[in-house]
Amino acid sequence: MATKRKIPLRKCVATGEMKPKKEMIRIVRSKDGEVSIDPNGKKSGRGAYLSKDKDAILLAKKKNILASHLEVAIDDSIYDELIRFVERENL
Q1: pTM for this structure?
Q2: Are 29 and 46 in contact (CB under 8 A)?
Q3: Where are the alpha helices (DSSP H) in 4-75?
Q4: What is the per-residue pLDDT across 6-55, written as a single tens digit (0 to 9) for each?
Q5: Domains of the chain, first to last
Q6: Helix axes 54-63, 76-89, angle to 10 degrees
Q7: Is 51 helix (H, G, I), strand (E, B) or coil?
Q8: Own/partner long-range contacts of 76-82 (Cβ < 8 Å, ≥24 apart)
Q9: What CA–CA distance (Å, rounded) separates 23 from 73?
Q10: Of 6, 20, 49, 89, which is most buried by a Cβ count within 10 Å?
Q11: How confident is the model at residue 1 (pLDDT cuts 50, 70, 90)?
Q12: How far is residue 40's CA from residue 61's CA, in Å, rounded to a whole number?
């Protein structure tokens, strides 16, 4: 008898939607205060999840949501990198 596996869900900090972890991008702040994209979700540090959606990334940038969740200033290059990452995923 096959057991049904539990799919881990995460909440998008921009839209508030609950989605499977694989449909999200994790942004992590290390102990040094360095912010980076964590495509595998394995890096240590404080993390925040965003939907793999350009609109969600732009909303997070507009409202400065990542900065408040990660408690550090977010450079615009991180948002540009996120948008490029999402566009590559959707090809």
Answers
A1: 0.89
A2: yes
A3: 54-63, 65-70
A4: 999 999 999 999 999 999 999 999 999 999 999 888 999 999 999 999 99
A5: 9-89 (3.30.1230.10)
A6: 170
A7: strand
A8: 78/27, 78/35, 78/36, 78/37, 81/37, 82/25, 82/27, 82/37, 82/50, 82/57
A9: 25
A10: 49
A11: low
A12: 22
With tokens 């732009």, the residue in question is 58
Token pair 């995923």 in the structure block, residue = 89
Contact 67, 6 (CB under 8 A): no
Q: How many CB atoms lie within 10 A of CB 70?
A: 20
Residue 85: Cβ within 10 Å count: 15
CA distances in angstroms from 80 to 20, 58, 61, 65, listed in the order given? 24, 10, 10, 15
State the DSSP code for 38: E
Helix (H) or strand (E) run with residue 88 in it: helix 76-89
Question: Hunting for tokens 């909303």 — which residue is that?
Answer: 59
Tokens (6 digits) for 54? 């350009």
